[in-house]
Amino acid sequence: MVMSNVILEKAYAQIGQRIREIRMSMKISQIELATRCGVEPSNLNRIEHGKANPTLRTLHLIAVALGVGLAELVKDA
What we know:
Elements: H1 2-25, H2 30-37, H3 41-48, H4 56-66, H5 70-74
């Protein structure tokens, strides 16, 4: 059971890093991305730092706001 939590935490961190990389490559702030996808800026910050468990819906909203497919956010996670 503990091992699966470690795996999930690593996946959340990788997804958050991927979101951050894409956002920064687009030269937009966290606040701007949060506004575009309707997510609280503090929640987006937690997602980017791997401290949140984003729902599939939230990940979809972020992907749409970034103009990428959902698979792009979760690849290698």
